[in-house]
Amino acid sequence: RSAVYLPVTPSNVCKPRRLYIEFKDVGWQDWIIAPQGYLANYCHGECPFPLSESLNGTNHAILQTLVHSLDPHGTPQPCCVPIRLSPVSMLYYDNNDNVVLRHYQDMVVDECGCR
Amino acid sequence: GNGEDLKTQERLFLNSLGLSARPKPSTHRRVPSVLWRMFKRTSTRENDTHERDPCMVSEYGVRGNIVRFVQDQGRLVSGWSGSCHGCVEKYMFFNMSVLQPVEQLSLAQLEIKFQWDMFRTPRFLLGPQALSVSLYKVLRATLRGASHEAHRRLVLSQSVQLEPEAGSLTLDLTALAQNWRKPGHNYGLVLELQLHPVHTQATDIFMSQNLVNAIPLGPTVTLPEFHASLVVVSLNPLQCRSRQR
Question: What's the complex ipTM?
């Protein structure tokens, strides 16, 4: 069978997209002291065949795109997911009204990849 | 359905923050300046790709990813003690159950900040003051009539020289706080303050004129206002993976 090439424009290739989370939007502004929000980002886009190096694909993802190109209905493309995240510190009041500073890992998407 | 999903998602996220529910808005405490400084430093460091160990609290020199200012939920036990002039006792209680079982306690430091009420303090006492501070661990508390009787053991006794405006005292209570995490082991602390006016020129005049009894020690002397906080640093190993791994 011949591979099916789907047109993929640079704009819909898997990459980090901008997402600013404002704590006020989820009603948490009364107990989160700082920050008021942060740039969380998210991953979105396609993992097309052939996977370029910039898409940080695993060997499994490369093979999956190959199979997907042969059978687009039976095998999905690999998923576009965060592969590098960074932490965020938050200052907030807990349920006992204590002031807490906490360091949270994996809060900001820095890099995406096809997995 | 969507509303329920939102609540479930929120609960999952709050659980990951170590919260049982969304904290209720209240008359919130002031944020300690040291926490603001730490927050600003860590926020700046997060933008630095060459960051050092993110789970090290360099201000206290211990490992941890959570710093809490646990507030004192105790109360004044007695105003002026009969056993000495210028004594005051305060029962302190720090709720250590706010720490999740998975958290490893790295540090518990008691910070007592003293502040003189300049309007109520006699002028001749506005010089440096010596303050005896005794700290007792409450082993057992029993209710007798309307008052509590605390069976206690002396943890620390020391003298602090206070400047006219303010002063502070820092005590390491890590070992004690470890023990408080065991169920039924946290009866709190009793803090006893005793004021000893340091001989200044003003008090010497009183002494030389044989007016020592005129020095209004007792209920007319105001002990400094004080505020106690327990700084607790802990590490949640699930949320603070080693960078080497």
Answer: 0.79
